[in-house]
Write a structure and sequence with these properties.
2 copies of one chain form a homodimer.
Chain A lengths: L1 E7 L7 H17 L4 E3 L17 H17 L4 E9 L6 E9 L2 E7 L24 E3 L2 E7 L6 H8 L5 E6 L7 H16 L2 E6 L1 E4 L2 E4 L3 E3 L5 E4 L6 E7 L13 H19 L5 E4 L4 H14 L4 E5 L7 H14 L2 E4 L3 H15 L6 H22 L2 E4 L3 H6 L12 E2 L6 H15 L6 H5 L12 H4 L3 H13 L4 H6 L4 H13 L1 H5 L27
Parallel strand pairs in A: 1-2, 2-3, 7-8, 8-9, 15-16, 15-18, 16-17, 18-19
Antiparallel strand pairs in A: 1-14, 3-4, 4-5, 6-7, 9-12, 10-11, 12-13
Helix pairs in contact in A: 1-2, 5-6, 5-11, 6-7, 6-11, 8-9, 14-16
């Protein structure tokens, strides 16, 4: 019999010291539980993705010291640990895993398939490995590999020749909607193709724009999931071979539930790992800020969240009272600071230059920027992190004010289309088992309330149709013609595409936000600002 | 005899239509001048770098259409044109050049060495080519290749076997200080190694953070530069083989002159290619904004530049009068809007919450953000682009206010260390042949003037020493220990490194700015915000 443990840990980018301690502790725990092989996620020693920290030689050196330290603590147990390997002669670095036993690094495997698309830049740093690994223990033969390796059929073919009893795959696979079912397919395919067990150990935790969702699993040679770790949480799962008969897992992801969990972990880890305790949210009475302040309160605890309500002369009485009601429902403290006197001071200061020019987006934006300034004043004075409340639909179209409602250290909803914001609002009410977010907030037609009787629908198509166009254009990279072929009016598609293209400059200055869809803004979508391409 | 022309053109990212017209015009001109071979820079058809536009299938298709259109216009002349090649079967794309003659694409060469470091992400998009090219014309044998190809000695060895008469290298090599001499070395080495002529055709123009500086050249088999195109400007140079005896060029770059030219081209192209006509600069009377407003006026013409002077109660009389003097010296229009009444409105609004808490960075930042809001109000009302005036030293240390002095569409000095800002100021005065920037501005100890008697030196070491530490840490990726070994006090180095690390979040929201040093912020240096690495 052989007993294998997967340590689904929250390893922290750059925190080599903390990660090392965590790895050593887990090895110790596994040893006490008489585990034979204990497995850690990809690059556990340095966290994922370490980005340009990898260009610092002393960072690589610290990580090498750490893997030797881990080895020296490892007794009569096999540990498979992700780290950065450096080839002594040429100085190249590899995304690698060490097979450790009895105080020694027995072997180092180097990742063969380096992802260099989407959010991944591994070819910027790593040299690819050339060979698969092959180990044996207690009459079991196995191979260890790293994340993307298994996502290429050419690699799986290499493994096939060797007839392994099981495969260990260590990963740092970030969450996006639909990724879990893709992972399940790939791992099931691999298991069936090779006719062996697959042990998949994934990272968990939030790192800037990425959330690693865990969900480590053991897959049978028939492609069934026999063991499935928690998602969005640390876990330690154990599975023994030969396998006893167990029921297999059927996994299905509910978009709003998974997004809720991902956002929650993303917020929590950004706040905690960056040394903050409390956050502040500008609560307008609209649905976006209602969802953000609720997420924050449910994640960080109500005493760690502060609401700032900043009504203007265009704020309706019902929006204003909803804003207060949301804070009260959640039990978060809040202040009310009307912006009108400040707005009037700006108008007076600009009167000489603007003269009788009509009220336009200038005056709308001044108000949004006053709110930004007030939120940042609270942040500076009390050390609160400002959570940004903008959603993906408005960020796509530039329906937001740079330095205004776009301020904040962290963009909670920046990859959440408006239609999903509504689903999240309803999910939050179900989850909290009370109407935290009042129906009036969910039902009121969206408005920026920066001028009299303003509606989002004055400037944008309805969100149902807008979000469809945005998905086609941003996530699927479809052309104007292709989107029109899907049955949407050309003038409308052209208008939306134009807004997306023109507003790249705004997004470039947006706070980092949590990736939820298959293609988020930021490192996942690298568009030029200066762009002469016309459709 | 064979006559070769290098077309050093300003090809525009995404503007396939415009680039195609420009290429066809230049081929026509070359044909009329009885040129045998006319050469264009790397990826001329789509501009460089096209980034994620390359993920759009219809973009690739438009580019293929364009190269066929160019071919159909090409008469009895050989044109070598950079474009994106798509392999019909597998759908992979290549960074390629077409050899065109008499209406036909005779051959397509695919770049073998794809840069994937620094600002480059070519492995994100392109598959590498496998073979060198070999052509002959009028008893001359030659090979064409693309930029990075020649930067690898393994590639030069491949060429060596073939004994070519000359090599054509088409490039999109962005400017940074020192790059020119590196290029010269590489090209001279290649020419000497191969014993043949090298024709080097580089791109020119500004594209977001990058400035392509041209400086195309013809290098003799002895490694001498026999022809050197203008830098930072379009050019069309012709060179015939066999070469007549000509004097060779000795190239030397003066940092402040080259930076001045790069900034000037960068500003001009960002403004023009993004459809702006006029810019606005917040002129404080300090040296950074003095340099930016001068650069803008000298580049765009004084009538296209607007100065906004926003004194507070902490602005000294001399700074204020210098601000006005700079605008007057340049002949740019300006407005004065004191921020004190607006500041007081904020203080009053916050009084209930802030109570008697002492004046701290909160109140400093509120003032900076009022200025940001006013600049953006002018931008919104009149369509001016806001030029940001922050320098690299303060951006490194976070000695700047997010949404305050960090606002703007384009960061002119964001890669210029403060010590170079001073040199630029003096250069601008020499260049303009008058004291545009008054001596008092250059001599006054730097201050943010956000509280009484504030000096930069209260928070930062002197810029002479700061810029040295920043270069070691940011550009050279040296560790704390390594920098201390260079003879700088440990406490000082530790303080500076800490500031750089802690302020990654601010830089992530900074406007795009012009790369001038070997490592700029932005795509050139991809650091995590959440970063647990401690020195």
């Amino acid at each position: 019999m052989i007993k294998i443990a997967l340590v689904q840990g929250n390893f922290w980018v750059g925190n080599i010291e903390g990660n090392t301690a965590r790895i050593i502790n887990a090895i110790d725990k596994a040893y006490k539980e008489k585990i034979d092989i204990v497995v850690f996620p990809e690059l556990s020693v340095v966290g994922y993705p370490p980005q340009d920290l990898l260009l610092k030689k002393y960072f690589i050196k610290e990580n090498i010291k750490a893997i030797h330290k881990i080895a020296s603590y490892t007794k009569n147990i096999i540990a498979i640990v992700g780290f950065v390997h450096r080839a002594e002669k040429e100085g190249s670095i590899y995304n690698a895993c060490a097979l450790i036993n009895k105080g020694k690094i027995i072997d180092v495997y180097c990742k063969v398939n380096l992802p260099n698309y989407g959010v991944f830049d591994e070819k910027r740093y790593f040299k690819p490995g050339r060979d698969i690994s092959a180990y044996s223990f207690k009459n079991y033969s196995f191979s260890a590999n790293i994340c993307e390796d298994l996502w290429r059929s050419s690699y799986v073919r290499l493994l096939k020749d060797k007839k392994f009893d099981f495969i260990v795959n260590i990963s740092a696979s970030p969450f996006c909607m639909g990724k879990l079912s893709l992972r399940k397919e790939i791992l099931s395919y691999t298991a069936r193709e090779l006719g062996c067990f697959v042990f998949y150990c994934n990272l968990v935790g939030g790192q800037d724009d990425l959330v690693f969702d865990g969900g480590s699993m053991v897959v049978s040679p028939e492609g069934k999931i026999l063991k499935f770790a928690k998602r969005f949480k640390d876990d330690f799962i154990v599975f023994s071979l030969p396998a006893r008969k167990v029921k297999s897992y059927h996994i299905k992801e509910v978009p709003e539930e998974a997004s809720f969990e991902a956002l929650s972990l993303g917020i929590n880890d950004y706040v905690r790992k960056n040394g903050f305790k409390k956050v502040i949210v500008g609560v307008s009475g609209g649905i976006d800020s209602a969802v953000v302040v609720s997420l924050a309160a449910l994640t960080l605890g109500k005493s760690n969240v502060y609401g700032l309500i900043m009504p203007s002369r265009y704020t309706s009485e019902s929006t204003f009272s909803d804003a207060k009601r949301i804070c009260e429902n959640l039990g978060v403290k809040y202040s009310v600071i009307p912006i009108t006197p400040i707005f009037d001071a700006y108008l007076k200061a600009l009167k000489n230059v603007f003269k009788d020019l009509p009220f336009d987006k200038t005056e709308e934006n001044i108000q949004a920027r006053i709110r930004g300034n007030l939120l940042m004043a609270f942040s500076n004075k009390f050390g609160y992190l400002v959570l940004n409340t903008g959603n993906k639909s408005e960020l796509s179209c530039g329906y937001c004010t740079l330095y205004g409602d776009m301020v904040g250290g962290f963009g909670v909803l920046s990859d959440i289309p408006k239609t999903l914001v509504y689903k999240l609002a309803n999910y939050i009410n179900r989850y909290s088992k009370k109407k935290v977010i009042p129906s009036s907030v969910i039902k009121r037609p969206p408005s920026a309330e920066l001028k009299p009787n303003q509606r989002d629908s004055d400037s944008l198509p309805s969100y149902d149709i807008l979000d469809v166009i945005l998905k086609f254009y941003i996530e699927d990279d479809l052309s104007l013609d292709d989107i029109v072929k899907k049955g949407i009016k050309r003038t409308l598609v052209k208008k939306v595409i134009g807004m997306v293209d023109r507003n790249e400059y705004k997004r470039r200055q947006a706070p980092v936000g949590i990736k939820i869809t298959p293609k988020a803004f930021g490192g996942d979508r690298r568009m030029p600002i200066t762009n002469g391409f016309s459709h």
